């Protein structure tokens, strides 16, 4: 036994072809809060070998587990990985009084899985896609075949296992697979950790349990099959959440959320039950929106990279790693290239491009390290793919973040982090009141801002409709999302007739 004497007890059960050493990293974290018990299952590590394959039948494995639990003074919280999870399912069915909760990692109940196959027998391709994940089982069932394979040192090294565990573990398959175990109801609270990169166990394996478990929750970890070894900190955190019964809200950070599209997006996420962090250069507006959505307010100028790092660190310390980051802060500069000053160029680039870079740099690495996925969203614009003579500085920055989003999606998708560029056309917001019209006098600035705001009002496309597209893009994992009729039309024309788009852009002048 390890960890805190007198604390709640967690029993960890390893699978094939591992030993209890699989849990070394997980125990280091769990041991800070719990009394942790782990043992080598039959035929592995320091445990003895039963005579013949029947010695590995689930009934005997369950009795071993029950004996351990009684010795440590159950009931306990049970965690199983791979075949440790398979026997965990059998244990919570046969000995429910011994367990407070069960965390299942990459190992379904054999009876539930057989029932799922029966229920989907009229969808053979779906069933085949699941069963093909276990192609190796056929070889394991044939005497002598796998034993020869396990004699190759390179293969054992790749699996990180000893020959004894590999050979003895074949009994798990030979004694239990294909025995026609009936599905049974589970009354113990169950949490499944879905390993998104597991080549052997996929979502359908986990869904097989849904009709049979009264209290079932699920979380996702972007790791491979041996996550307890490769991602011990993250696995331990999921186990802690499961034991505590925590169902964490989605944490959403939105820059430029004091008004317009950012404000509407904050409202939409809050309506969906998210915890929202409102970030804006206008502190009063940020506090107002945060109070409205029950969130948290931070003042931030996204053009200041050091300030972004400080605020991101504070958000992480107080609220955790965000699930969604919306880089929405932006400004507008209108005017031909020849009339746009260097100062105007630097200002729009600092906010619209560097602000997005600063924001994503501050949060993306933490999302990747957490290994639970996430989503980055940037507010680009239809102007980002409509060459025009009216606003080259603004359009250049929006084209840049549109490309940045696509590059980041290509880079981060393997880590479960998706990236979306939202590209609105004309939207009824107050951004026109803050436009800079290059080369205009103060009086001309006011008049042109008034006219631009009037155009947006007459367009009648509200920011709440853009916000709805943001939530849909996050849910569906879309990368480039044109919003408004004109944005969609130009996006389509760029594919069909890019020359026509360029000619139209020459007509749009400041």
How far apart the termini lie comes to 74 Å
Structural class, by secondary structure, is alpha/beta
CATH architecture of the largest domain: 3-Layer(aba) Sandwich
The percent range for helix content is: 40-55%
Could you name the CATH class of the largest domain?
Alpha Beta
As a whole number of angstroms, the C-alpha radius of gyration is 28 Å
Report the average pLDDT across residues: 93
Sequence of strands across the biggest β-sheet:
1-3-2-4-5-6-7
Please name the fourth-level CATH homologous superfamily of the largest domain: NAD(P)-binding Rossmann-like Domain
Q: Which word captures the global form? A: elongated
How is the secondary structure organized here?
Layout: E1 2-3, E2 9-13, H1 24-30, E3 35-39, H2 58-72, E4 76-81, H3 83-94, E5 99-105, H4 110-119, H5 124-131, H6 137-141, H7 145-150, H8 153-159, H9 163-176, E6 189-195, H10 203-207, E7 216-221, H11 227-230, H12 232-244, E8 251-255, H13 260-271, E9 275-280, H14 283-293, E10 296-299, H15 305-319, E11 324-327, E12 333-334, H16 342-370, E13 374-379, H17 392-412, E14 417-424, E15 436-437, H18 442-459, H19 463-476, E16 480-483, H20 485-496, H21 498-507
Helix pairs in contact: 1-12, 2-3, 13-14, 13-19, 15-16, 16-17, 20-21
